[in-house]
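FORM 7B - TANDEM STRUCTURE REPORT

SECTION 1: FIRST PROTEIN
SEQUENCE AND TOKENS:
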Amino acid sequence: MYAPASTAKIPEDLQAALSVNPVPALFFGSLKSAARYEVLHGLETAKKRDTQELRIRAFITSAAEHNETDSFLGRCLGF
């Protein structure tokens, strides 16, 4: 069972990555709740730790390079 959007928490690994990357942190903070949940759900549903780490790196990289909204989230998270 996955946490609903109202109670989804930011994983420690993502929080750590955001804390040292200000542009992606600002981008993540600016996301609407549905888009933010898409990121969190994508991390939560990763079956392997390696997959979650890849998705975090992809999000950080994409958010640092783009100033777009939800349209690129699926691409950077791989679904």
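SECTION 2: SECOND PROTEIN
SEQUENCE AND TOKENS:
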Amino acid sequence: MKEDSKVLEVMEAFRKKKAVFRATKHKEEGSVFFVLRYLYMAKEEVHPTELCRIMHVTTPRITSILNAMEDDGLILRRI
């Protein structure tokens, strides 16, 4: 449950714009919020191809969004 509260905290900070993420500077704010919410609801690993399908975007676009989120410490990707 501690992870749940951290996700909610990040989402709330994002919503209130208390935190400025690199992704928002690239006009990806809605996409970042969608990915955070999707990951929270999934409760398991999500592959980038699944995000592409759900969001109807290309692989390079998802890669860009995920790279920005990872740089900001919002997600952790595993190989």
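SECTION 3: OBSERVATIONS ON SECOND PROTEIN
The CA atoms of residues 15 and 33 lie 8 Å apart.
The two ends are 25 Å apart (CA to CA).

SECTION 4: SIGNATURE
Preparer initials: ____
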